[in-house]
């Protein structure tokens, strides 16, 4: 699938939350941590009980950048679960139509 820049969306979170409902492609994540050894979990679904897709670990007052070599597919949606204290999580993604 060819991704056009105009199709890429961005969502900024300061706590756990739903990024995309329905199928989407993850382009990148930037998480800025406030406290030591915290996690940002990327889940394929609509809440914290959804299947774990990937997770990022960070340390105090540092940013973690995750940009997969190819886009990661989340079939049910993309939920970001934050464990610990963060400044922000910036997620770039492409929302897909059902069946894409």
Distance between the termini: 9 Å
Low-confidence stretches: none
Give the SSE string: EEEEEEEEE
Radius of gyration: 13 Å
Overall structural class, as computed from helix and strand content, comes to mainly beta
Helix content: under 10%
Please give the number of β-strands: 9
Give the percentage of residues in beta strands: over 45%
Largest sheet: 5 strands, antiparallel
What integer is the average pLDDT? 90
The number of helical elements comes to 0
Outline: globular
Structure described in brief:
The chain has 100 residues and is mainly β. It has strands spanning 8-13, 17-21, 24-33, 38-44, 51-58, 63-66, 72-74, 77-83, 86-95.
Q: Overview of this structure, please?
A:
This protein is mainly β. The protein has strands spanning 8-13, 17-21, 24-33, 38-44, 51-58, 63-66, 72-74, 77-83, 86-95. The strands form two sheets. Strands 1, 3, 6, 7 and 9 form a five-stranded antiparallel beta sheet that branches. A four-stranded antiparallel beta sheet has the order 2-8-4-5, with no helix packed on it. The mean pLDDT is 90.
Break the fold down into its secondary structure elements and pairings.
Blueprint: E1 8-13, E2 17-21, E3 24-33, E4 38-44, E5 51-58, E6 63-66, E7 72-74, E8 77-83, E9 86-95
Antiparallel strand pairs: 1-9, 2-8, 3-6, 3-7, 3-9, 4-5, 4-8
Question: Which terms summarize this structure?
Answer:
single chain, 100 residues, mainly beta, 4-stranded antiparallel sheet, 9 strands
């Amino acid at each position: 699938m060819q991704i056009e820049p105009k199709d890429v969306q961005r969502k900024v979170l300061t706590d756990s939350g739903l990024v995309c409902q329905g199928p989407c492609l993850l382009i990148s994540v930037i998480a800025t941590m406030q406290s030591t050894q915290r996690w940002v979990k990327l889940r394929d679904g609509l809440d914290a009980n959804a299947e774990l897709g990937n997770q990022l670990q960070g340390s105090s007052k540092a940013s973690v950048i995750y940009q997969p070599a190819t886009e990661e597919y989340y079939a049910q949606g993309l939920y970001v679960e934050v464990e610990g204290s963060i400044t922000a999580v910036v997620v770039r993604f492409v929302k897909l139509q059902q069946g894409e």
